[in-house]
What we know:
Elements: E1 3-7, H1 12-23, E2 27-32, H2 35-44, E3 52-56, H3 62-75, E4 81-84, H4 102-122, E5 129-134, H5 156-177, E6 182-187, H6 201-214, H7 218-230, E7 239-241, E8 250-252, H8 257-271
Amino acid sequence: xxxxxxxxxxxxxxxxxxxxxxxxxxxxxxxxxxxxxxxxxxxxxxxxxxxxxxxxxxxxxxxxxxxxxxxxxxxxxxxxxxxxxxxxxxxxxxxxxxxxxxxxxxxxxxxxxxxxxxxxxxxxxxxxxxxxxxxxxxxxxxxxxxxxxxxxxxxxxxxxxxxxxxxxxxxxxxxxxxxxxxxxxxxxxxxxxxxxxxxxxxxxxxxxxxxxxxxxxxxxxxxxxxxxxxxxxxxxxxxxxxxxxxxxxxxxxxxxxxxxxxxxxxxxxxxxx
Length: 273
Ligand SMILES: NC(=O)c1ccc[n+]([C@@H]2O[C@H](COP(=O)([O-])OP(=O)(O)OC[C@H]3O[C@@H](n4cnc5c(N)ncnc54)[C@H](OP(=O)(O)O)[C@@H]3O)[C@@H](O)[C@H]2O)c1
């Protein structure tokens, strides 16, 4: 039985992936901020809930990530797969206690930090897997990282792509530095979840109208995560899944190694991990 940790597993696409992976007989550990949603998630699993647990965690700060990692490691020696579906969607200039932008902290840096701290448990797995969910961001070297990591003042339209692309660089770094570990990035597509909760009203209204017409189902958005955890026919190189629900349509992440090193050095400096 595999032990799979899903950061963001109490909600939306992460919760759907957890439900599907439980259905395949795995053990699931869910992380999220909202205790009530965590308990509701466990209750929704029925009899399979005895193979699932929830840890309430605020992953927006360095201290929150460190505290979460130590609680996870106290309970689990080995982690077979770590899936990051945490995310916020905000236009606001909201800074964390560490002075970083919330979008950067949650949608990239906490993923780097938590994974680094959990590497000892991942290394005990036969074939460890790390997956990070983003929007549709095909790997490219045509990206300006000059504003990394401060992104001040924050502009979602300008900054969201480099922040999300940092996940691809981390997947490349992990594949090259952790032998045997398979790392990838998964496009979420567009699914009706709680992600718009702090977005402007007109975007929430648009989502409501478009929902039945143009959105992916949560099941489709979760499928590539589920398949990537279940299959071991990928992982020699970092992988990007660009089409929700199409596990066979994946591309290798090839990125400029100097840029990757620059981003990893900055991430290490910020977190100490
Ligand atoms: N749905 C879409 O159309 C779409 C489009 C592009 C990208 N994405 C990406 O897909 C991923 C899954 O999102 P979703 O659509 O399933 O949205 P969601 O239902 O809002 O899930 C987001 C998850 O992130 C967790 N989270 C947020 N801030 C956190 C923090 N500070 N500490 C710990 N956990 C935190 C939430 O926990 P709580 O609920 O407890 O706060 C929740 O579990 C995200 O990375 C999102 O950016 C989604």
